[in-house]
């Protein structure tokens, strides 16, 4: 009878890598996004297996990503993520944009925002976009960002909605503020476009065209994106 020395047993890491490769082989034909917890193999990435998907500790199960959280004194409510189409939840995908790492790309028709990563990956978030007649597109830069920003409705919006007159001087940041927990300010050629990438308390609008032109995100997602953006960041909206 052969001894164990004739057939050495694989260690745990080797076994896990083998299972990961088998999982990717089976899934690659039907999807380009993967459930990240199944890939967290001792902090490694999938290496030479294509499509290559990175491991990121901030992209995990939705009950953790969209849990209630305290942020700068505000208690963010949990997001009922089961009511959000899974494709609009935060996830890592193979980058479809071809843009340089560090670029934000908003695909209006897809209702996705991509933050391009080194190595061929992108973080993808679901977004809400502007209604017809309120859309903006082009290449620009995120000039700066703000936490719990003050919202000042433009005069033309107040003209359409007189009830906003009380906020002509600005609405303080807070849970009911339309800009949500974070705002990233879009400038083109040094001029403020008036458009923002921002959070929203209205999570149910993600995936829809309902805003006045800005790109809105789930509050927990815009906080995640804000924490990743360093300095002036190129943005492409198309």
CATH architecture verdict of the largest domain: Beta Barrel
Question: What is the share of helical residues?
Answer: 10-25%
CATH topology of the largest domain: the name is L,D-transpeptidase catalytic domain-like
CATH class of the largest domain: Mainly Beta
Q: What spatial order of strands do you see in the largest sheet? A: 3-6-5-4-13-8-9-10-12
How are the secondary structure elements laid out?
Blueprint: H1 12-27, H2 62-65, E1 69-71, E2 74-76, E3 91-94, E4 104-107, E5 112-116, E6 121-126, E7 129-130, E8 138-147, H3 155-160, E9 182-188, E10 191-200, E11 209-211, E12 215-218, H4 219-228, E13 233-237
Parallel strand pairs: 4-13, 7-11, 10-12
Antiparallel strand pairs: 1-2, 3-6, 4-5, 5-6, 8-9, 8-13, 9-10
General description of the model:
The chain has helices at residues 12-27, 62-65, 155-160, 219-228, and strands at 69-71, 74-76, 91-94, 104-107, 112-116, 121-126, 129-130, 138-147, 182-188, 191-200, 209-211, 215-218, 233-237. The chain is α+β, with helices and mostly antiparallel strands and 238 residues long. The chain has 2 domains: 1-60, no CATH class; 66-237, L,D-transpeptidase catalytic domain-like, CATH 2.40.440.10. The strands form 3 sheets. Strands 3-6-5-4-13-8-9-10-12 form a 9-stranded mixed β-sheet, with helices on one face. The protein has a two-stranded antiparallel ribbon with strand order 1-2. A two-stranded parallel sheet has the order 7-11. It is globular. The model is unreliable at 2-52 (pLDDT under 50).
